[in-house]
Amino acid sequence: MNGTFGVIRLVVQGDRPAPAPVGVVETLNEACDADGLPRWQADLKPGQPVRLLTGPFADLVGELESMTDTRRVRILLDILGGETPVVLPVTSVAPDSG
Q1: Regarding predicted confidence, which is higher, 7 or 48?
Q2: Is 90 helix (H, G, I), strand (E, B) or coil?
Q3: pTM
């Protein structure tokens, strides 16, 4: 189980895996699209600052330039004094709260 893609570790009680509370798995499934990917619910708008959540630029803040489709966003990152566009899955960013 711990070798499964996306699994960090099991939640345990003592030395046994803990069951998920009733409704958690169903709620997560309902939040996914037909491909099993989570639908992003954040209200993202071009021009707003966003924080990168994953990848080599994780924790950097950039400006949302555009949403290329329902699953990808184009972010402008200030790297080495210049704006560098990066296209990422929408699930890799979140609105920056400051």
Answers
A1: 48
A2: helix
A3: 0.57
